[in-house]
Specification:
This protein has 112 residues and is mainly alpha-helical. The chain has helices at 2-23, 29-32, 38-63, 67-88, 94-111.
Length: 112
């Protein structure tokens, strides 16, 4: 039961991240370090962070397993790439550490 609650929290968190990115794309600048340049940049944030995260979160809430596992693998892949990139790009900063911890927690909870 606790694991199911964690999966739902991860899916809702993913969905909400997508909604914020879609509706307020410039709000992610401070946390991600991504700064959209012109309309094309804003559209990219809305499409990738908004659309993809909304779609993934929504499909998990609608279908349950195995969609939860798929989202979990995505989070673990993002965490793996982030961890390597943090070292190679010398970007071990608070926002990256927080993102890495959330991605690992969501990923593990979702694949179990």
């Amino acid at each position: 039961m606790v694991l199911l609650v964690l999966k739902i929290v991860a899916a809702v968190g993913t969905l909400l991240t997508g909604i914020v990115s879609l509706v307020w794309p410039r709000s992610i600048i401070g946390f991600t370090g991504l700064e959209p340049v012109g309309g094309r940049g804003v559209t990219e944030i809305r499409a990738v962070f908004g659309g993809a995260f909304i779609g993934l979160g929504a499909v998990c809430l609608a279908l349950g397993e195995p969609a939860y596992r798929t989202l979990g693998v995505m989070y673990l892949a993002i965490a793996a790439v982030r961890a390597v990139s943090m070292v190679t790009d010398k970007s071990v900063v608070q926002s990256n550490i927080i993102s890495l911890l959330v991605e690992l927690a969501f990923g593990v909870a979702l694949v179990l």
